[in-house]
Write a structure and sequence with these properties.
81% of the residues lie in helices and 0% in strands. By secondary structure, the protein is mainly alpha-helical. Helix 3 packs across helix 9 and helix 8 runs antiparallel to helix 10.
Length: 259
């Protein structure tokens, strides 16, 4: 029997309630500023957004942004996740690499944007690299902390059964790291979308960030809202995809919560 929280009906009701609350808040803010002349109301914005969904131009911008952020998060995970496990499971390696991480993690990576553009040019690679760098640090720290906090008794009990490095990784370190990695990746979704908007706001002609800033410069407020809604939809879709992946790859967590 499935848990009530996973049923589609109650989930849709909760999402509908959240959308209604946001729409009401939007309407109140819109009416509060020049009677809706600057910020379109939710009905006008929804109508304009639905019209934009039928245009090729919107999907060109959406797919350009989606490709950049998906490549960034994939690259961040591919590098930071195994490195986090390696650091968390080897005290000597962690002792040497942790100071480097602690010194560089608090530095806002967005300030390196001019340097990244100088090194890698104005193309997509520099944008993907910067987003991956920011999200990768979040995944690395979360996974490293999660593995290093693992109770040593679990490791010792598996070793006493004769397990080598690979079984130890597969049955102990990987299950301990996955939930922390997915949590960091979900948190990194918001960060990645925010940085995506920043890097797309100049030196490019494709992407939702460009769409927002271009419409804002032309005082096309409805077009601006279309870009904002598109970016919100992209972030929410990524968040849901990551959560779905976590449910598939971390099934023991759901079983433990239901027990």
């Amino acid at each position: 029997m499935k848990h009530s929280e996973n049923r589609l009906g109650p989930r849709l009701v909760r999402f509908g309630t959240a959308v209604a609350f946001l729409a009401f808040s939007w309407w109140a803010v819109s009416k509060g500023f020049r009677g809706g002349q600057v910020l379109p109301g939710p009905a006008q914005a929804a109508g304009t957004f639905l019209q934009a969904l039928a245009t090729k131009a919107f999907w060109d911008h959406f797919l350009a942004s989606a490709l950049r952020v998906i490549l960034s998060m994939t690259a961040a995970w591919a590098v930071a996740f195994p490195l986090g496990i390696f650091m968390g499971s080897h005290k000597t390696v962690d002792a040497w690499l942790a100071p480097l991480v602690f010194l560089t993690f608090p530095v806002p990576k967005i300030v390196f944007l001019p340097v990244v553009l100088l090194l890698f040019g104005l193309g997509d690679f520099s944008k993907v690299f910067l987003i991956a760098l920011i999200v990768g640090y979040q995944v690395l720290v979360a996974v490293r902390d999660g593995v290093s906090s693992l109770n040593p008794k679990y490791v010792d009990s598996v070793k006493t059964l004769g397990a080598g490095p690979w079984p130890l990784f597969r049955h102990v370190f990987l299950p301990a790291a996955l939930p922390h990695g997915f949590t960091a990746l979900r948190l990194g979704t918001g960060t990645g979308i925010a940085v995506l908007f920043f890097v797309e706001s100049f030196a490019t002609s494709r992407g939702l960030g460009y769409l927002i800033m271009d419409a804002w410069g032309r005082l096309d407020y409805r077009g601006m809202v279309v870009g904002i809604l598109g970016m919100s939809f992209l972030g929410a879709a990524l968040f849901e995809i990551i959560e779905a992946l976590e449910k598939v790859l971390c099934r023991w967590q759901g079983a433990r919560q239901r027990s």
